[in-house]
Amino acid sequence: MFRWFHRLASLRNFYRLAEILMPWLAVLCAGLLAVGLYRGLFVAPADYEQGESYRIIYVHVPSAWMSMFIYMVIAFCSALFLVWKMKIADIVAEVSAPIGAAFTFLALLTGSLWGKPMWGTWWEWDARLTSELILLFIYFGYMALRSAIDNPSTAARAVAILALVGVVNIPIIHYSVEWWNTLHQPASITKIGKPSIHISMLIPLLLMALGFTLFYVVNMLARARNVILQREAKTSWVRERVSEGRL
Amino acid sequence: MKEFLLMGGYWPYVWPSFAATFIVMAWLMISTIWQRRKIIDGLKRKLELEKRESKT
Q: B43 and A222: CB-CB below 8 Å?
């Protein structure tokens, strides 16, 4: 187990593994998103309260889930990096941050576009919306701090600590709809017992969520490969690949 | 078809949501590809330069 762990941690092996996995995951991702979109827009019925407007759920909820999921990946990788000095963990955390920020932005934007017709307002300073906005600022802070410190290894350690401190915001976002009286509706999927959403609406949502997750994985792997090429530019394996055009 | 595009009158909210999601995800992909090309060009140029230097 530890040996396997160590081999994966080698940047060269990670580069190769990502190269093999990416096309398969990309095809699967495209398929899931296509079927999810089709079922969400054409097959699923209109909501009895919200009419057609609820279809925003198919981009809003997956984006919001990704905003938190990616943050948890960053925090997990930061812990790995702080404890075991795994270089690959730092790289995965680094390249995940802009993707996470992008999905957080999307969650806020699509939420605003959904809030206007349903709540009558683009924005409200309630617990769910505010804590999600704070998440966006944490992502920005994470990226700004990394680029502000010249020494890469100092930067890596500083942002890893920042990422771990910021984890406290994740349960706040998740439970905000229960702890406070918010405008935002409570969770429909992750609550204990049966989800309060009909199966014909739930299936496309899960397909989209899985598609978004795979999109993140593929994009993260591609970005990690870019960083590996840069960081390993002086090694013989990168030079070999460059001279043979096998990139 | 027209009915579908109108989204029960909610089209000004539904379609911008889907469009924004599409644009952001496309930008994530495109920026990654551009970054990759830039890095590879840099690596190739460096290798060429070294080759020329070693010849002289």
A: no
